[in-house]
Design a protein that fits this description.
This protein is an alpha+beta fold. Helix content is 40%, strand content 19%. The protein has one domain: Beta Polymerase, domain 2.
């Protein structure tokens, strides 16, 4: 005769306490990329095509209310940064994003592209060093909290 389970509580409570059962590995499908991951792929791909330097992606989920990811890249000249912003805006529209806001594209050291869940910052090297967004929003943020 099998031994009775001596854990106190009803069978329902025991099931809840045990937690969800994982699906067998053979049945799991390869995870499809999320909409956020697809959007990030379009952004990083566009920046790579335009020879952006030092492209960094920061995961801000749970840290910032205005976006889930931040992409920071460097361009060497005003024309390169303006071209990167223009091409990125076009590729985001082609990917189905309807509201893409671009600030500072008229020849400044810093262009911001708001793609909804992802915010893209395009800097000249000096401006990137001065604003230090990676330091402000990077891993140091977790340690300071």
């Amino acid at each position: 005769m099998p031994a009775a389970d001596k854990t106190p509580g009803s069978p329902r409570k025991k099931t809840i306490a045990a937690g969800p059962k994982a699906a067998p590995r053979a049945r799991r499908k390869a995870a499809e990329p999320t909409a956020l991951e697809r959007l990030q792929s379009v952004i990083v791909g566009s920046l790579d095509d335009d020879k952006a330097e030092n492209v960094v992606t920061l995961d801000l989920e749970g840290k910032a209310m205005f976006c889930d990811r931040m992409v920071i890249a460097t361009g060497l000249a005003d024309r390169q940064i303006a071209a990167m912003a223009q091409h990125l805006s076009e590729k985001l529209h082609a990917a189905g994003l309807r509201r893409v806001q671009v600030e500072g594209a008229g020849g400044s050291d810093w262009v911001l592209i708001d793609a909804g869940d992802i915010v893209v910052h395009l800097f000249k090297p000096e401006a990137r060093t001065m604003y230090a967004l990676e330091k402000m929003w990077g891993a140091d943020l977790d340690e300071a909290g």
